[in-house]
């Protein structure tokens, strides 16, 4: 496992890396060890700014520790609260800009901040512009690949519309929140040059992001299996990791993630 960690060290988000290291160090055999693992990664979880990335990090942490995701979220909120009490530096507005969102809006739609989110917005815009592009996207990525639930809902509606239906027909199929997101997507212009290459870049970014997420998940599971001494599962996960890494090797394609 050390070799694999060295190879993809720079590609693994800090939260996942710290989680793997903490599991290897403390184990998860009882509630006390799980709490120690969680305490190790809380500062990194609390620093995640993107709601989408935070949701994924919370789910991964909860899965590895075998606890409910609400438990992890509550620990993050408590950590942030205690940190604010200890710190007297900076004004409240500066602090609030870095606080973890509350449960009611933690996982709501946000403007694209990373390559994956940017690619999803771009792909959705292409899908709404041209039925040929829509069919190509489905052929390469399938029908369910958006991490953003609003984008997925709009994409589902676009698939449900017939080929001859105008794009404004989508507004009749969507609820008001999705209508607002759809309006924001439609006002974005698609440059007239190199559109095929642009779509290819977006598609490749999604593919690479998906492969990277799968590798991270497998490595977390491997760390847990090694700690538990489950030799059969370690061997099985090791093979899956090797296959995933072999698939990811080769010349760079598309937009870097």
Instruction: Give the helix proportion (percent range).
Output: 55-70%
Spatial separation of the terminal alpha carbons: 23 Å
- Which geometry do the CA atoms define? globular
Beta-strand proportion: under 5%
- Rounded mean pLDDT is 76
Structural class: mainly alpha
Radius of gyration: 21 Å
Q: DSSP helix count?
A: 13
Low-confidence stretches: 1-11, 93-112, 251-257
Described by strand count, sense and barrel closure, the largest sheet is:
none
- DSSP summary, beta strand count: 0
Order of helices and strands: HHHHHHHHHHHHH
Notes on the structure:
The protein is an all-alpha fold and 257 residues long. It has 13 helices and no strands. The longest helix has 34 residues.
Descriptive keywords:
257 residues; mainly alpha; 0% strand; globular; disordered N terminus
Blueprint of the fold:
Layout: H1 2-8, H2 14-26, H3 31-46, H4 51-65, H5 69-86, H6 92-96, H7 115-129, H8 131-141, H9 149-160, H10 170-173, H11 176-186, H12 195-228, H13 231-248
Helix pairs in contact: 2-3, 2-12, 3-4, 3-5, 4-5, 7-8, 7-9, 7-12, 8-12, 9-11, 12-13
Give a concise summary.
The chain contains 13 helices and no strands.
